[in-house]
Amino acid sequence: MSDVVEIARKRLAEIEAEAEKLRTFLGVYADLSGEKIATGVSHDDSSRGEEEDTASPAEIVAGAKALMQEHRRPLSRSRLVKLLTEKGLKLPGQDKSKNVGTVIWRSKEFDNIAGYGYWPKEFGRWIGQRPAEADLLGVNIG
Predict the structure, then answer these.
(1) Fewer CB in a 10 Å sphere around the end CB: N or C, the chain?
(2) For residue 46, what pLDDT is reported?
C-alpha cells in the first residue's frame, strides 16, 4: 500500500508544480495585458491583495527608464529587480527577474545590449565600456 501512496504523492507534486506554472503564466499575462484574469481557483484574501498591489507593466517600464537615466548605463534584469525593489516597487511573480525582463521585452521600448543589459531606445545608441569598466565607472562615455 505504501507504493500506491508514494505514487499518489508524486502525482500530486507534479500537478501542483504544473498549477504553479499556470498561475505564473496567468499572472504575467494579466500584468502585461492589463486584464484581470479569473483563474477559477479560489485563493485566500492575502494572496489576492498581494497581486493587486504589484507594479503595473507601465510602472516597471517607467521605473526602469528612470534608473537607466540615473545610472547612465544599461542595466541587467537582476540589477533592475534589485534597484526597482529598493525604490519601493513591488514586483509581480515568483521569478521577478524573468517577469521584469518579459515586461521590458514586450514593451518594445528597449534594446538588449549583449553583456550590458537593457537600454531605452529613446535615449539613443549607448556607447560604453566593457561591463567591468562600466560597473566601476558607473557612467556612459560618449
Answers:
(1) N
(2) 44
Considering only CA atoms, which of 94, 75, 96 is closest in space to residue 85?
A: 96
Give me 33's grid cell. 495585458
Phi, psi of 120 (to 5 degrees): -65, 130
Q: What is the rounded distance in angstroms from the CA atom of residue 142 to the CA atom of residue 132?
A: 17
Q: Return d(Cα 120, Cα 108) in angstroms, integer.
A: 9
Q: What percent of the chain has pLDDT over 90?
A: 39
Helices assigned H by DSSP within the chain: 2-33, 45-52, 57-71, 77-86, 96-107, 131-137
What is the rounded CA–CA span in Å between residue 109 and residue 77? 15
Among the listed residues 72, 122, 80, 115, the one whose alpha carbon sits nearest the alpha carbon of residue 99: 80
Number of C-beta neighbours around residue 141 at 10 A: 12
Residues found in the chain: 142
For 87, which DSSP code?
T
Report domain extents, the chain: 2-137
Using CA atoms, how far residue 115 sits from 12, 13, 81, 107, 138, in Å, is 41, 37, 17, 20, 15
Phi/psi of residue 42, nearest 5 degrees = -80, 135
**Predicted TM-score (pTM) of this structure:** 0.56
